[in-house]
Design goal:
6-stranded mixed sheet, 42% helix
Length: 170
């Protein structure tokens, strides 16, 4: 075989192995917000930051549309529907993040402010079995003015994602 054919064979084998080993993750963001029925800009920022983090770590990521919910019954319906979509899409892992927003009315609900979030709960599921693999919770706490923006939200989400990553690599 000539060098070109050998190189093409090695490149094909490498690409096949890389694509075969990449886990496919489905992501669902649920917004808990008693003052807002529409999805906030901050919820979309959470989704984007999580998407970027997982993609940068080598995962193939898909998502269901970000939704609002008023109670645990509605959360369950949203999660079951998204988990079913993940099965149909042949995903390996399903992640749900529930962002709890503060009860105070924001003057700019479409603005991206870390201070509007009180906490984020997350859970990781094995799509094939539907079993929960891990879960966690992150409180926002006091937010300095210079972090009350999209970069602050992205950093908060990256911290959550780092906690999740330990469980995703198992």
């Amino acid at each position: 075989m000539n060098k070109r054919k050998i190189f093409m064979l090695i490149a094909f084998a490498f690409l096949t192995l890389v694509s075969a080993s990449a886990s496919v993750i489905s992501l669902q963001i649920i917004q808990h917000d008693s003052t807002q029925d529409e999805v906030r800009g901050t919820s979309y920022a959470i989704e984007n930051a999580m998407f970027d983090f997982l993609f940068d770590k080598g995962f193939i990521v898909t998502n269901s549309p970000t939704e609002t919910s008023s109670d645990s019954r509605e959360d369950s319906i949203i999660c079951k529907r998204a988990l079913s979509d993940a099965r149909i899409g042949m995903c390996d892992i399903f992640i749900v993040l529930k962002a709890d927003f503060k009860d105070s009315v924001s003057q700019n609900p479409q603005g991206i402010f870390l201070s509007n979030i009180s906490r984020v709960n997350w859970e990781i599921f094995d799509v094939s079995t539907g079993k929960s693999l891990a879960n966690g919770r992150s409180e926002v706490g006091e937010v300095p003015f210079k972090k009350d923006n999209e970069r602050g939200v992205a950093q908060f989400v990256r911290d959550i994602a780092e906690d999740m990553l330990v469980n995703l690599r198992r």
